[in-house]
Amino acid sequence: MKSKNSILIIGLALLFAVSLSSCLTTKKFDAYVSAQYNDQVPELNTKKKTGNISVSSALPSKSTAVSTTEPSTKVLPLIVYWNIDHRYVCSLNSQIAVANFSKAVNTMANRGLNEQLKGRQLELTVEQAPSTFAMIDKTNVVWVIYAVHWTKVYIEPDAKDLVVSYKLHQADSSVKTGSITVKNKQHNQNLRFFQSWKSATSEYLSAYDSDVNAMAKEFVNKLIEEM
Hints:
The chain is α+β, with helices and mostly antiparallel strands. 36% of the residues lie in helices and 35% in strands.
C-alpha cells in the first residue's frame, strides 16, 4: 500500500511540475517578451548625451536578443509533504534598463538638472540594474489519507538595486567621483484568478519600465544632493 501511495504522489508531483510548461515554452516566452518591446533592443554600448550629461553602461550585453529564458524545476520530496518549484527565469537584455534610465535622466536634465550643473560636464555609468524576473509555478502536495495539493503562480522580480557611478568635471579642472545606489522596490506579482501568463507578463514589464524610470528619478535627486 505504501508503495502504491508513493507512486501516486510521485505521479501527482510530476503532473503539477509540468502544469505550466504544458502550455508554455521558453521560445514562446521570449517571443512574447520581445513583442512587448517591438522586437528591438537599444544598441550595445549605448551612449546618449543631452547638454552636459552623458550616460553609458558597464553592464555586459553580448546578445542582441530582447530576452533569454531558461526553465528550472526543483522538487523537495519529504515523507508526507512535497514541494515542486517550477519556474521560467527570464533575463532581459541589460540595455533595456540602461535605455529607460537614460531617457528618465535626460528628461530631468531638461527640467532643471542642467541648470544645477552650471556648465559642468557629468558622466554617468550604469554599473548594476535589475534585469531578471521569473514566472513561478509552486505546487505543494500533502499526503494525509489521500493527496491534497494547492498551486500558486506568480512573478518574482530581480532583487538587484540600481547602482550608478558618476564623474563630475568641476570648473577648476578637478573631477568629483562617486557612486549612488537606489533600492529596488519591486515586489512579487501574483497571477489573478484565470489570468493568463501573457497578461501577467505584459503587466510586469510595464511595471518594470515604470520602476526603472522611478529609480532613475530618485538617483537624480540623490545626485543633486551630493553636488
